[in-house]
Amino acid sequence: MSNKLIYLDNNATTPTDPRVVETMVPYFYNFPGNAASRSHPFGWQAEEAVDYAREQIASLINVDSKEIIFTSGATESDNLALKGVFEMYQRKGNHIITLETEHKAVLDSCKKIEKMGGQVTYLKVQRDGLVNLEELEAAIKDNTILVSIMWANNETGVIQPMEEIGKICAKKGVLFMSDATQAVGKIPVDPKAVGVHLMAFTAHKMYGPKGVGALFVNRKNPRVKVTSQMDGGGHERGMRSGTLNVPGIVGFGKAAEIAKNEMAQDAERLSKLRDRLEEGFLNSLEEIYVNGNTQHRMPHVTNISFKHVEGEGLMMTFNQNIAVSSGSACTSASLEPSYVLIALGLGDDLAHSSIRFSLGRFTTEEEIDITLDMLRKGVNHMRDLSPIWEMYKEGIDLESVQWTEH
Amino acid sequence: MAYSEKVLEHFKNPKNVGTLDKSKSNVGTGLVGAPECGDVMRLQIEVDEITGMIKDAKFKTFGCGSAIASSSLATEWLKGKSIDEALTIDNMDIVEELALPPVKIHCSVLAEDAIRSAIKDYKTKNNLVEAQTK
To answer: Parallel, antiparallel, or unpaired: how do β-strands A95-99 and A119-123 relate?
Structure first.
């Protein structure tokens, strides 16, 4: 990565840690075997490497290595968990509960399940992004088979009360699945301790390579099974066929090992940098809003609305130098602001004004200070250009203005 | 998405940013769009009462780079035109000049709306008959 480019979009993907890449390289050249080849050393070496990585990953989340199913990424894991449970547990019921703020991999899988004859309840979240536990409990019906709630949100970093949700699911006797893509490797994640039975996650959000993910499937008390969505050679205990991505899995394992060792220090350092960024804005600019619960939140994420400034335009003032993500999807044909922020009860105007900063292992204090400086200049530039800012400054009630919707 | 050089130039150095005195009878103000939609444009024209030509134009825009560039360009084009000439500015002219991609065409439409709205305001203030618009 070029020195002058500052990368604060680690929730989209993380750069691969050089230590991970080093571990992967021999599995392209020296050990090119197929882990399913049982009849020669190439296959044995590959299988051994996969087994070792499986142990590393299982150890990170404190589960048995037999409970790890390798996939192509978290999207596939989400699809496998949701559709796989829906098909496997049809006789028990057809109702699934999830949140409006889930990732599209969960929401779109649920939409597909509805087409397949399932029922899905999409729960609203509270203003801080957290699930309402009473509403969750009340939504569980006799035919409910699964509750799917993400561990930490990709846009806001808000962490759900996993333990409490797990207790409700246990009490009601339904399975609990979690998309933990943003949480694994960054904060302690122990699915068994909180009663999660299925959990999707991926390597490339924790400094591993892209194209490899995993699904944790609980094996004992209860023994959970999912119907395969990819059929073929019966790999991964029949739940996910397809030749294993050996170099990717080796890298995933190494990334998990590093995360386990360095997570605490990374989290502490990044939360300080994140707070420095957030406080820097709050202390120097007016009309700044931090979105989502700030107590139950990932250490490296902040989602900020710069009121009366449009997010995509703001990004244009610095995106030659700083990479972030906007809650305004003005680039897409839909012109829709972020559905996650809308679900938090933000008005469309605040949602259009939001920027997500996601820090990572390689973020430095100097980069945060440069970001603060460039963003302040950008916000001031955009506010000088903004008729809404001018009206706000004149004391005009923007709610009372007759806008022309287009 | 990559922006064209012309959009970037207008965005970095927007022309005619500012506010005209909307209480003056020879100033027409158009405010179009909505914060909820992510675009609000305010475009103003000042008409020379003797010659009937637009002698100044100013804008402020809340929106993406293409929206800002579209309104900046519109003010450039408006200056020195008569009201009737100004009404001939078509959004597709803006699209072409700025090389806007299809997802940004609405920005040029908004700029055209802002021009028409400012002219309408000027005409209403001065009891002029609304000319035939396309």
So the answer is: parallel
Residue A46 contacts residue A195 (beta carbons within 8 Å): no
Predicted-complex ipTM score: 0.89
Contact between B62 and A337 using a beta-carbon 8 Å cutoff = no
- Alpha-carbon distance of A112 to A89, in angstroms, equals 16
Distance CA B65, CA A309 (A): 12
Cα dihedral sign, A5-A10-A14-A18: positive
Per the annotation, the verdict on B107 as an active-site residue is: yes
**What mean pLDDT comes out for the span B77-95?**
95
Q: How far is it between the farthest Cα atoms of chain A? A: 79
Q: Which chain B residue has the Cα nearest residue A353?
A: B38
Closest CA to B39 of B79, B70, B2, B15: B70
Cβ atoms B11, B69 nearer than 8 A: yes
Chain B CB within 8 Å of residue A307 CB: no
Tell if the CB–CB gap between B64 and A310 is shorter than 8 Å: yes
With an 8 Å Cβ cutoff, are B68 and A385 in contact? yes
Residue A328: strand pairing partners: A337
Cβ-count burial of A118 within 10 angstroms (0-12 exposed, 13-18 middle, 19+ buried)?
Answer: buried
Tokens of A348: 């469309």
* Count of Cβ atoms closer than 10 Å to residue A122 Cβ: 16
User: For A148-182, b where at least 16 C-beta lie within 10 A, e where not — what string?
Assistant: bbbbbbbbbbbbbbbeebbbbbeeeebbbbbbbbb
Among A337, A388, A406, the residue with its CB nearest the CB of B62 is A388
Provide block-wise average pLDDT over 10 residues at a time, chain A (406 residues): 80 97 97 96 97 98 98 98 97 97 97 98 97 98 98 97 98 98 98 98 98 98 96 94 97 98 98 98 96 97 94 90 79 67 90 94 97 97 94 89 77
Residue A41 DSSP SS3? helix
In contact, B30 and B121? CB cutoff 8 Å:
yes
CA A32, A38, A41: angle at the middle one, nearest 5? 50
How is A60-118 classified by DSSP, letter by letter?
A: HTTS-GGGEEEESSHHHHHHHHHHHHHHHTTTT--EEEEETTS-HHHHHHHHHHHHTT-
Q: How many CB pairs under 8 A join A and B?
A: 96
Hey, how many other C-beta atoms are within 10 angstroms of the C-beta on A380?
15
> What's the rounded Cα separation, in Å, for the pair B17 and B75?
9
Taking an 8 Å cut-off on Cβ atoms, the answer to whether A387 and B36 are in contact is: no
CA distance A149 to A133: 12
Q: Which residues in chain B touch residue A333, judged by CB atoms under 8 angstroms apart?
A: 103
Instruction: Work out the minimum CA distance from B7 to partner chain A, whole angstroms.
Output: 11
Encoded tokens for A121: 């309840």
Q: pLDDT confidence of B103, banded at 50, 70, 90?
A: confident
Rounded Cα distance, A189 and A185, in Å: 8
